[in-house]
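Hey all, quick one. A colleague (J.T.) asked me to put the adenosine-5'-triphosphate job into the tracker so the inputs and the structure tokens live in one place instead of scattered across chat threads. No bug as far as I know, just bookkeeping. Sequence used:
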Amino acid sequence: MSEAAHLELRAVAKSYEGGRVRALRGIDLAIARGESVAIVGPSGSGKSTLLAVLGTLERPDEGEVLLAGRSVWSRGRDLAAVRALELGFVFQLYNLVPVLSARENVELALQGRVASRAERRRRALAWLERLGLLPRAEARASVLSGGERQRVALARALVNDPPLLLADEPTGALDRASGELLLAELRRTAREHGKTLVLVTHDPAVAAACDRRLRLVDGAFVGENEA
Ligand SMILES: Nc1ncnc2c1ncn2[C@@H]1O[C@H](COP(=O)(O)OP(=O)(O)OP(=O)(O)O)[C@@H](O)[C@H]1O
Ligand SMILES: [Mg+2]
């Protein structure tokens, strides 16, 4: 018997504003464990909505979301635990806590999971160092540049070692060199640790580096591997 997809959507639809905005129209998608998938498409085509549905942050109006073969919206599932243990997010708008330092923002992801404060600090600093941010570790998030914030968000997503990484335009605010560093780190981590990676991007080079490309237009897929 073949293994269940890591993540699967069946006929997923999602509307906003009482149905006036149809963000997703009947999406079917199966992502294998360890696969990297790029979601591309014009602004407003539903990419962030799709990622939010994949990440259990938005509940679809119709259809099913399955993680390792189990419906995530079925009764009795602890969604908070699923999010904390299974998923690493890098949001389009970073969602950092502005008054906390880069290091503290990363440590937040370990709160309640790693008891030792010194260990939380050590792990956070190790990820910040890998992403070239050690010199800015103690700077408040509010003073960091857009690219630095993106890297802090990536460190925060990776520090928990989740099996599934979801990233919304992770290289959007970066210059070419920083973007390549960040993407290389994301893909290296995903490959070496067998992680599944789903990312939204406008960058053809980023999309080309993924195993699979899916193009969304008006909330529906319009072809694969053409981006
Ligand atoms: N919370 C919301 N309430 C109302 N409409 C929404 C909401 N979130 C998204 N939309 C609408 O749904 C559609 C899809 O939005 P989405 O954010 O998924 O697009 P996107 O492909 O990520 O675009 P971009 O590339 O600009 O980030 C858009 O028309 C958007 O205005
Ligand atoms: Mg978006």
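Adding what we noticed when we looked at it: Strands lie at 7-16, 21-31, 36-40, 62-67, 70-71, 87-90, 164-168, 196-200, 212-217, 220-224. Residues 16-17, 21, 23, 41, 43-49 surround adenosine-5'-triphosphate (ligand 1) (CB under 6 Å).
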